[in-house]
Structure formats: C-alpha cells, structure tokens
Amino acid sequence: MKKPIITVFLLLIGLGWSPKTTSAQNAKFYALFMAKFTDYIQWPNSNDQIVIGVYGSQDIISELKKYSASKKNIGVMDISSVNDAQKCQIVFLADSKNSEFESINLGIDGKDILLVTENESFIKKGAGISFYLEGTKLRFKLNKQTMDAKNLKVGGSLLSLADVV
C-alpha cells in the first residue's frame, strides 16, 4: 500500500511546476499533497478524522473536498480565525494570508497542529511544512524540530521526500 502512495508523491515532486501554472492547478497540487501528508504523519490525540483547515484559498478547499469524498478520514474546514485553526490537525495558510502567520502560529503554539504554508521563509519561524519552487518543480521543506515539538510523528517515507531543516 505504501509503494503506490510514495509513487504518487514522487510523480508530483517530479512534475514540472511553473509560476505560470494556473491557480486551479496549484490548488490541486497543494490539496493532494496535504491529503497525502495525513498518511505519513501521526497525531498524538487524533480521532479517526483529520481536519484540514484552509485559510485564504477557496480553490484549495474545493479540491480538498473532492479528495475527502474518497478518503473518509479527512475533514475540510474553511478557517478565518485562530479559534477555527485550533479545531484542526492541519492548517494551510495561503500566500494571500501571510500577514496572519504570526497570529495563527501563536494561536496553535504548543498544540499538535501542523502549520503548512506557501511561504518558504516561514519554515524557520514555526511552520511544520512549507512549499517552495526549485526551478520549475514543487518541493516542500519539513521542520523536524517543529514536528517533534508538536509531538507529530513523521514517517520515514515522507522525511525522505522532504528537504528537512
């Protein structure tokens, strides 16, 4: 079961990613990555459903809802506040909401909530995972120290695909 999932990750990472890619295409990639992250990360006190909250992107919410229809263990939430973020296991902060990074990060500090961003610079400021471009390819950085501090257990397969900082 793990091999097909790893293959999907490798294909996604290898796919050409261009700044000219449409917003809808970007949303599909981000949504698929986040849905797959749930297969490789264990939360200490999670129930059977992992709630992915999205702050600032209706396109990503729509795509995640498509994935969650086939993966019953994923819930999707449109978040607009720190209180909303505290109800999730994953919070995705879209570039359009970068100004809210500090308040969201402080609001989930000390909680087992993974913060995922589109802004590479946030990886050293408390985000657990940040997407970035390497040439034309989409990659992601994973802050192992942040993940450990939040008691999130990251599978070796995911670590091998990430740029661990």
Structural features, described:
With 165 residues, the chain is α/β, with parallel strands linked by helices. The protein has one domain: Response regulator (Rossmann fold, 3-Layer(aba) Sandwich), CATH 3.40.50. 41% of the residues lie in helices and 22% in strands. It is built from seven helices and nine strands. It has helices spanning 2-14, 23-40, 58-70, 82-85, 101-108, 144-149, 156-161; strands at residues 41-42, 50-55, 74-78, 90-93, 114-117, 129-134, 137-142, 153-154, 163-164. Strands 3-2-4-5-6-7-9 form a seven-stranded mixed sheet. Helix 2 (23-40) crosses helix 3 (58-70). The longest helix has 18 residues, at 23-40. The radius of gyration is 14 Å and the shape is globular. The model is unreliable at 7-11 and 13-21 (pLDDT under 50).
End-to-end CA span: 28 Å
CATH class annotation: Alpha Beta
Task: Say what the CATH topology is.
Answer: Rossmann fold
Provide the β-strand percentage band: 15-25%
What average pLDDT do the residues reach?
A: 87
Number of domains: 1
Biggest beta sheet attributes: 7 strands, mixed
Summarize the structure.
The chain has helices at 2-14, 23-40, 58-70, 82-85, 101-108, 144-149, 156-161, and strands spanning 41-42, 50-55, 74-78, 90-93, 114-117, 129-134, 137-142, 153-154, 163-164.
Any key phrases for this structure?
165 residues, alpha/beta, Rossmann fold, two-stranded antiparallel ribbon, 7 helices, 22% strand
